[in-house]
């Protein structure tokens, strides 16, 4: 067996907060977002989709989801839902219920319109440069400021 | 005796399944992707594997947050096709190989891998898209399939090192199965992609190709890439590539590359594909 020292869980998790524009689906988020995600799973059944579409608020009231979570679901505010512990594979059941392509739903989480996002993907996607580390970005910005 | 004769790595983007099901494989958008699989489809016709151990992840289709197994193996006679919200894909049912699957499960448990066993299991695009990419649209899949599901959604997901090691244990298990069987192992998912948050759409051609180079190498450095590197370099969903390491671990020390293909983009995702043969 090759050497692979066990990582400290706190250090392991802390690194995730350094990634720009990304919320890693940790156990803490999974726990917080449990009912948001289980609600989203319920959208796989046609009869549930029908009831949801008829009266979204009434359907959401059947679930143990916070008011903040319900509002974010009604607004389809996916960045807010990620913060509340939603996971994109679960939330995608709502994209399907709404009849919008996965990539279009992704674009709503960025600062681009759907046509702009689609063009970015055709052009080779978002570049990793400047998107790897918040810490590194801040250091680079500070260095640039210092050299002015 | 049974033997693992080859390993295949492939993306499993759902849109590829749509392209197959709707006959778009040759259009301007999908043509460059599917042409990279032409070689493999011909090769599979000649190889005629009896069984494929297909490493994939469920995308909140059959599994929900109620159960999150790190490593699970399908030991049933057959596996249904998930309805992922727009009706099940029009593909044949997947036939299992319960004898070999249970044999692998037992061997892995004796080797200290605490497996979850599924008897009833429906499979989603993570498993059916690679079958379509490699076999096209047959009336019946040409081989039996053992689904091997990995949690790559809820963190912590298994380390690359652990994935490689379980691949080695799968090789050992297959080689101790008494029946003569031609077995392939496929690692699926990836390559770089991020489907969430303001950084959605991240792709990394350079890193993905470095990863493919590392798979072809005679050393096992690739197993030690930490999760944080996948996350920073390949997007939040690029972590699926750890599943390719199960395939690579089952190849032994040295491999021969038979085929390799890379294309950007397919929807949000970089498409990668590799065919390896053990060369020890």
Tell me what the structure shows:
The complex is a heterodimer of chains A (148) and B (280). Chain A has a single domain, classed as Dioxygenase LigAB, LigA subunit (Protocatechuate 4,5-dioxygenase, Chain A, Orthogonal Bundle), CATH 1.10.700.10. Helices cover 61% and strands 0% of the residues of chain A. Chain A contains 11 helices and no strands. The N and C termini of chain A lie far apart (52 Å). The mean pLDDT of chain A is 94. In chain B, helix 1 packs across helix 4 (125-135) and helix 5 packs parallel to helix 8 (242-249). Chain B has a single domain (3-278), classed as Protocatechuate 4,5-dioxygenase, Chain B (3-Layer(aba) Sandwich). Chain B is α/β, with parallel strands linked by helices and 280 residues long. The two termini of chain B are 18 Å apart. In chain B, 33% of the residues lie in helices and 23% in strands. In chain B, strand 10 and strand 11 form a beta hairpin. Chain B has an 8-stranded mixed β-sheet, with helices on both faces. Chain B has a 3-stranded mixed β-sheet with strand order 5-4-7. Classes of the chains: A mainly alpha (148), B alpha/beta (280). At the A-B interface, helix 1, helix 3, helix 7, helix 8 and helix 9 of A face helix 7 of B.
């Amino acid at each position: 067996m090759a050497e692979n020292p066990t990582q400290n869980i706190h250090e392991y998790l802390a690194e995730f907060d350094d990634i720009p524009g990304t919320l890693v689906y940790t156990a803490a988020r999974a726990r917080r977002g449990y009912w948001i995600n289980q609600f989203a799973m319920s959208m796989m059944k046609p009869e549930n989709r029908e009831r949801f579409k008829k009266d979204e608020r009434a359907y959401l009231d059947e679930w143990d989801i916070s008011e903040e979570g319900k509002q974010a679901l009604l607004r389809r505010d996916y960045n807010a839902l990620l913060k509340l512990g939603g996971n994109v594979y679960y939330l995608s059941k709502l994209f399907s219920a709404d009849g919008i392509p996965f990539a279009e739903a992704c674009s709503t989480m960025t600062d681009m319109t759907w046509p702009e996002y689609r063009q970015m993907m055709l052009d080779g996607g978002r570049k990793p440069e400047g998107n790897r580390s918040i810490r590194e970005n801040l250091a680079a910005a500070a260095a640039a400021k210092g050299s002015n | 005796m049974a033997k693992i004769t080859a390993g295949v790595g492939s993306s499993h983007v759902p849109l590829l399944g749509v392209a197959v099901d709707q006959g778009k494989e040759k259009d301007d958008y999908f043509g460059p992707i599917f042409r990279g699989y032409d070689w493999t489809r011909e090769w599979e016709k000649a190889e005629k594997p009896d069984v494929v151990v297909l490493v994939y992840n469920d995308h909140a289709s059959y599994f929900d947050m109620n159960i999150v197994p790190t490593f699970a193996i399908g030991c049933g006679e057959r596996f249904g096709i998930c309805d992922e919200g727009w009706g099940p894909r029009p593909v044949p049912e997947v036939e299992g190989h319960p004898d070999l699957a249970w044999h692998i499960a037992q061997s892995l448990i004796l080797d200290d891998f605490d497996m979850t066993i599924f008897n009833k299991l429906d499979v989603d695009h993570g498993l059916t898209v690679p079958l379509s990419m490699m076999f096209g649209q047959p009336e019946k899949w040409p081989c039996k399939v053992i689904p091997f599901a990995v949690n790559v959604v809820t963190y912590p997901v298994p380390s690359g090192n652990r994935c490689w090691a379980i691949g080695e244990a799968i090789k050992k298990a297959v080689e101790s199965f008494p029946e003569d069987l031609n077995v392939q192992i496929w690692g699926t998912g990836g390559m770089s992609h991020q489907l969430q948050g303001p950084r959605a759409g991240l792709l990394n051609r350079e890193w993905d190709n470095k990863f493919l180079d590392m798979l072809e190498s005679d050393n096992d450095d690739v197993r030690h890439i930490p999760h944080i590197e996948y996350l920073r370099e390949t997007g939040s969903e690029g972590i699926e590539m750890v599943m390719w390491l199960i395939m690579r671990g089952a190849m032994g020390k040295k491999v021969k590359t038979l085929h390799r293909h890379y294309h950007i983009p397919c929807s949000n995702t970089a498409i990668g594909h590799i065919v390896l043969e053990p060369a020890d």
